[in-house]
């Protein structure tokens, strides 16, 4: 049976006691919240590198804090470091954290410019060797631990662990666009299983580079509406043509409710349910029938012990791609049935772009702020709704509304699906309703 400290399955209720956030809208919870409530866009022309011959020349970059210009790993670390510091400050815990760290990060590589520079200085190699062969030969000839750390995305978690005093071997996950939600799920499971009395879930994305942009362009996944960057990301609109890449990071401090209450911690809300499913349909595409996404949402609701009718708001994956938005609508319809027409839905990506590995955690933070402050964030650029997707999208302007439970979806490339059920701070079994 549930109690004030446990859920209906007898597991510890997992409270969120600290959060940190950086997106293209700004740094910190309050700056981001204010901008998002105003329906501002963080998407702008790329100035970090030349884009003259690229079809996509816009992104949601983070250019307002000092970040290494041409190293995605260093940028990812810097973004994560800032959000962890904010989350720990909000939680009231010391920097010597003492719990496990679960990090979501992209598997980035050195930029080609750096590879070629090394290759030019490489020792002789066999005739017909590729640039990558020369790159490896140069690295063997001139071992450079600093360069290695800067190019290995797994070292981000190790450096965060050293800085903030987390316990045990830090875990790095990369499940495409679901990574941030996956990191939260791993932290929740560690607490539920009694393996930790606190956990840190962090997600970071700093890989807006020319190479990354070209790779997504080759998949025809990106918006090419460069003329008006702020209007390029338009989820569920009939004018959508692709997603907009973006940078950002989020951090969440998670604790069992009993422990959080015993130390008088502020509680932002609860992670009541989580689930993940993989469909293995295609290397980049999700299954168009949406069945794996349906199963993911239903599993998250079952994990939370909630009926679909108890969800008051859906924070959609909502990438603004023609295929994903249509698939998500079909899957959400299967879960919520006829009430979907009156179930508010938003996509934060309309304002901040798609933060890839960080998206699930960033949107979890926005979701918790929404239910805690009785405010549903808008989907901006929703001027021409797609008639094939008849959702109750919160259009262009925020909506004041009391919501107890929100479903936040992350449906990633290659069929990596994850859903979280997040609840307001007073919504606990045995507690006030």
From TrEMBL:
Any one Gene Ontology molecular-function term assigned to this protein's record: 3-oxoacyl-[acyl-carrier-protein] synthase activity
GO terms for cellular component: cytosol
UniProt keyword Transferase, yes or no: yes
Biological process according to GO: fatty acid biosynthetic process
Superkingdom to which the source organism belongs: Bacteria
Coiled-coil blocks: none
Protein's pathway: Lipid metabolism; fatty acid biosynthesis
Keywords, in A-Z order: Transferase
Domain Ketosynthase family 3 (KS3) intervals: 11-424
Family: Belongs to the thiolase-like superfamily. Beta-ketoacyl-ACP synthases family.
Name assigned to this protein: Beta-ketoacyl-ACP synthase
């Amino acid at each position: 049976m549930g109690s004030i400290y446990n859920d209906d399955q007898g597991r510890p209720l997992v409270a969120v006691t600290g959060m940190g956030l950086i997106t293209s809208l700004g740094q910190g919870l309050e700056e981001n919240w204010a901008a998002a409530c105003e329906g501002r866009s963080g998407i702008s022309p790329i100035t970090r590198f030349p884009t003259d011959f690229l079809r996509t020349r816009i992104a949601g970059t983070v250019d307002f804090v000092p970040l290494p210009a041409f190293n995605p790993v260093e940028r990812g670390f810097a973004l994560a470091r800032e959000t962890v510091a904010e989350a720990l400050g909000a939680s009231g815990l010391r920097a010597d954290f003492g719990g496990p760290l679960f990090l979501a990060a992209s598997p980035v590589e050195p930029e080609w410019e750096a590879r070629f520079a090394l290759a030019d200085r490489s020792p002789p190699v066999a005739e017909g060797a590729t640039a990558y062969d020369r790159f490896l030969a140069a690295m063997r000839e001139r071992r450079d631990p600093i360069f290695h750390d800067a190019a290995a995305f797994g070292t981000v978690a190790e450096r965060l662990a050293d800085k903030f005093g987390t316990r045990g071997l830090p875990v790095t996950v990369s499940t495409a666009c679901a990574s941030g939600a996956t990191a939260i799920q791993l932290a929740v499971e560690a607490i539920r299983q009694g393996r930790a009395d606190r956990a840190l879930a962090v997600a970071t994305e700093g890989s807006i580079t020319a190479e990354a942009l070209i790779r997504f362009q080759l998949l025809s996944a990106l918006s090419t509406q460069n003329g008006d960057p702020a209007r390029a990301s338009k989820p569920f609109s009939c004018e959508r043509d692709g997603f907009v890449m973006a940078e950002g990071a989020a951090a969440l401090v998670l604790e069992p409710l009993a422990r959080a209450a015993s130390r008088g911690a502020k509680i932002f809300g609860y992670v009541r349910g989580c689930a993940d499913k993989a469909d293995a349909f295609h290397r980049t595409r999700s299954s168009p029938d949406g069945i794996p996404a349906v199963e993911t949402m239903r599993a998250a609701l079952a994990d939370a012990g909630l009926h679909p009718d108890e969800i008051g708001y859906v924070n959609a994956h909502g990438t603004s791609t023609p295929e994903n938005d249509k698939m998500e609508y079909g899957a959400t319809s299967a879960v919520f049935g006829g009430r979907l027409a009156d179930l508010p839905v938003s996509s934060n990506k309309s304002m901040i772009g798609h933060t890839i590995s960080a998206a699930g955690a960033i949107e979890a933070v926005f979701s918790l702020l929404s239910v805690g402050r009785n405010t549903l964030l808008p989907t901006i650029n929703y001027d021409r709704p797609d008639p094939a997707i008849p959702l109750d999208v919160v259009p262009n302007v925020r909506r004041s509304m009391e919501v107890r439970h929100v479903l936040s979806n992350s449906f990633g490339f290659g069929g990596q699906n994850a859903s979280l059920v997040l609840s307001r701070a007073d919504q606990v079994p045995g507690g006030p309703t």
